[in-house]
Design a protein that fits this description.
The structure is a single chain. This protein is an all-alpha fold. About 80% of the residues lie in helices and about 0% in strands. The chain has 19 helices and no strands. It has helices spanning about 10-20, 20-40, 45-65, 75-95, 95-100, 105-130, 135-145, 150-160, 165-190, 200-225, 230-250, 255-275, 275-305, 305-310, 315-345, 350-355, 360-370, 380-395, 395-410. The termini are far apart. The relative contact order is 0.15.
């Protein structure tokens, strides 16, 4: 036995030493994610809400005690983007392709045209009202506007609404996330002075990415048909993600569009090549991965946003929320009203619900954690991003529930609309 130096240990010192190694940090983080998710489900609230509140509590404790359980966990931009691609992959596995075909016009219009309109209007308003340089405002708008439909779909499931509208909301979300990330990447490249060959780049992104994803989806579907083993098929689903993501990255395509295309194809073929046990195992696994990732991001976000930022820039909260909601509402109502006029039957009540379904969570967190340090007005933009997340997680689900309940009590039930 070697003699040990005698020293006084406070509770803070003990906790800091315990969490000084990354494995212990990860254990604590994921244990907390599980606890928050369970509490939220017990209270009949979306799991993402529990993860957010848990992350904020950790944020507060870290600010007041000096204990940072995330201090040794790196926040590399590439790692964060892999996490957000995993979220998109999970959404794609659950998307109903038959309903997607029914809503293909609305989804295409909202996910491409709606994303571009919302980001453009948001950037203009940020520039006009808050005097943010236009190039920086586009980056901020691309961070604010992509949507996360997970919590909203849970609400709609509880209300028993028609599958068409659930697929419209989830379909819009899974495609506007990649397009929001594409616009963010291009805006960041322009800001950084990187030269872009626009024709080649757009062709690779918009044409090459979905072809790449579908190609591997078809190949893996053929492999799935020849297997009957849940574990092997689960491992294959992980392999499909890796090939779709890193292959697209290698060939300078959009990793997010490729992952979405691959997961949608396989997700809608699983009934033809997997038994019930395998499907349930696959869906539960990827759902758990998605909850763990969002919980992890909520806990890590305190690393990027000191508490004093949230207090110092609190005056920006009303303007930020107003700009984001106006931009989203203008894009959704303009495009869906046009669709209704040309015979697609998108009644006003559903235009309102699609509008309110715009929860800005997963992609907003990911981009916020990857913003470059030399971005002008970085502290303000980070605080504004956090305000958007707070609003999306704590306020928008309740507005959504109120709207659905009010419309469900109308003469014509929502599931019949």
């Amino acid at each position: 036995m070697f003699p040990r130096e005698k020293r006084t240990m406070t509770l803070t010192h003990v906790i800091t030493e315990i969490t000084s190694e990354t494995p212990f940090e990860l254990v604590i983080i994921f244990a907390f994610v599980i606890l928050c998710s369970l509490l939220a489900r017990k209270l009949k609230q979306p799991a993402v809400m529990g993860c957010f509140i848990g992350g904020f509590i950790i944020h507060l404790l870290g600010s007041f005690t000096g204990i940072d359980i995330t201090q040794n966990i790196p926040l590399q931009p590439h790692f964060i983007m892999v996490l957000i691609a995993l979220l998109i992959y999970n959404e794609g596995l659950h998307l109903d392709f038959e309903q997607l075909k029914i809503n293909k016009e609305e989804i295409s219009l909202l996910s491409i045209g709606g994303t571009i309109i919302a980001i453009a209007l948001c950037a203009y308003l940020l520039h006009l009202l808050l005097k943010i340089p236009l190039s920086v405002a586009v980056i901020a708008a691309a961070m604010f506007m992509p949507t996360d439909a997970g919590a909203v779909i849970a609400i709609l499931n509880d209300m028993g609404v028609a599958p068409r509208w659930k697929s419209l909301i989830s379909g819009e979300s899974i495609f506007n996330d990649p397009f929001g990330l594409i616009i963010f990447g291009m805006a960041l490249a322009v800001f950084s002075g990187i030269e872009i060959s626009w024709g080649k780049t757009l062709a690779l992104i918009l044409i090459g990415s979905p072809i790449w994803g579908i190609f591997w989806g078809v190949l893996f579907y053929q492999i799935y048909k020849r297997l009957n083993d849940p574990i092997s098929e689960l491992l294959l689903s992980m392999m499909l993600f890796v090939i779709a993501f890193y292959g697209a990255e290698l060939f300078h395509m959009s990793e997010f569009l490729a992952v979405a295309a691959a997961s949608i194809f396989v997700g809608n073929k699983k009934d033809f090549c997997m038994d019930h046990e395998t499907i349930e195992t696959l869906e539960r696994f990827w759902e758990a991965i998605a909850i763990a990732i969002e919980g992890f991001l909520f806990l890590m976000i305190g690393k990027a946003i000191p508490l004093e930022y949230l207090v110092q820039y609190l005056y920006l909260l009303p303007a930020t929320i107003l700009i984001v909601m106006v931009s989203r509402s203008f894009a959704v109502h303009t495009l869906l009203t046009i669709m209704d006029k040309i015979g697609q039957n998108v009644p006003l009540k559903w235009r309102i619900i699609v509008d309110l379904s715009g929860l800005h969570v997963g992609v907003t967190m990911a981009i916020l954690l990857t913003l470059p340090d030399d971005l002008p007005r970085l502290a303000e933009i980070k605080a504004m991003g956090y305000y958007v997340i707070i609003w999306s997680v704590l306020v928008m689900p309740f507005l959504m529930k109120m709207a659905v309940k009010k419309m469900a009590s109308s003469a014509k039930p929502l599931r019949d609309c």
